[in-house]
Description:
Helices cover 14% and strands 39% of the residues. It has helices at residues 3-9, 35-38, 113-126, 143-148; strands at residues 20-23, 46-53, 56-64, 69-77, 80-83, 87-92, 95-100, 132-139, 155-163, 180-184, 187-190, 196-199, 202-204, 206-212, 217-218, 226-227. The strands form 4 sheets. Strands 1, 2, 3, 4, 5, 6 and 7 form a 7-stranded mixed β-sheet that branches. A 4-stranded mixed β-sheet has the order 8-9-12-11, with no helix packed on it. The two termini are 35 Å apart.
Amino acid sequence: MTPLIASLAGLVPEEAIKYHWFEMPDPGQPVQVDAEVMSRRLPFPKVAVACQLGSNRLVLLLVQTEQITGCVPMLLGPRGMSSGRAFGYVVQDGEVRVWHHDRTPFDPKTSGAAGYAPLIASFLRSLDTGPVAAYQPALRPNHAKRLRQGRPPQYNWETIVIEPPQPKAAPQGGTHASPRWHERRGHWRTTRSGTRCWVRHCEVGDKALGAVFHDYKINPAGSSGIAS
């Protein structure tokens, strides 16, 4: 866990444990917001992205369903904390469509969402560059007492390593040389050194050869495993 994440998690003491937290460096130059990038899946359904922007500290609380991603931006500056206007986006027909949750008109020239979307795109791109650390908080027994006393909460943090998608291997012959396109679910992997890593959701295979779709469900209580 990093000092930046520790400071920003305290802004949402009751919600912090629902998210996996990431720290992203200031991207500097604006990142292009295109449909290919914005259509990528988050590594977890709820992700908090922390970023230091000059003298301001920013956290983007992202929640993703099957197609839609919602975002609540929170900015901690010299004058205190302020919440930006919540917005959502979806990729349809090769376009990124953005709207405000309060139904006010979206204007790319004035809406804060237009400035936050490039940060989301930068975060999604960073997942492809190498292993990225995610931090998952858990409440300590003294959590409620500290809040009653007006003191900042404390958490126990677990570090999770997110590995980038594996590059597609060149055809080697045999039945698995050119697999049909399919989605590979995120899953845990244990390395030879014993480190527990999360391999994020990705797409593999060749769409020209057809597609395979999987529907997964959790077995009822008392059973084990995942049925397909």
